[in-house]
Design a protein that fits this description.
By secondary structure, the protein is an all-alpha fold. The longest helix has 150 residues.
């Protein structure tokens, strides 16, 4: 057992430089690589979170602008519809006025034509009466003339 302990002691003694080397490498790794790696990861995390927050703000801003744009579009459409409706109403009123005026003119023309027609009818009746009287006189004269010439002989 003595030999085993001696061999173990020899092994421990020969492993001391390896242990020191390992401790130096581990310390160097912690100082040089690990701390710098932790700083870079923390910075990356901060930037990522900052970018996410910035993106959320931009999205919120875009949604607000979109809502505003949609509101303005709705208002513009409503205004266009109101303008069209107003224009249609004015056009309909003008059309109705023009129709009323045309009806009045047509009524006036019809009344004038009826009046002229009545006057023409009266004139034609008077002419026909006069012609009938003339024809009756001519017929009577012809009928009586042969009788007068025969009776007076």
């Amino acid at each position: 057992m003595d030999e085993t302990l001696k061999a173990l002691g020899q092994l421990l003694l020969s492993s001391i430089p390896a242990i020191f080397g390992l401790l130096i490498v581990w310390t160097a790794y912690r100082l040089i690589v690990y701390t710098r790696l932790q700083q870079v990861l923390a910075e990356r995390q901060a930037r990522t979170e900052g970018a996410i927050e910035e993106a959320k703000k931009e999205i919120a801003s875009a949604e607000e602008r979109t809502a505003e744009y949609e509101r303005l579009v709705r208002e513009a459409r409503a205004q266009v519809y109101q303008t069209q409706e107003s224009h249609s109403r004015r056009t309909m009123e003008e059309r109705n006025k023009a129709l009323a005026e045309a009806r009045k003119q047509a009524e006036t023309m019809v009344r004038g034509a009826r009046s002229a027609l009545e006057q023409d009818v009266l004139a034609a009746k008077a002419t026909l009466q006069h012609q009938a009287d003339s024809l009756a006189n001519a017929v009577i004269a012809r009928v009586l003339k042969p009788a007068a010439s025969a009776g007076g002989r």
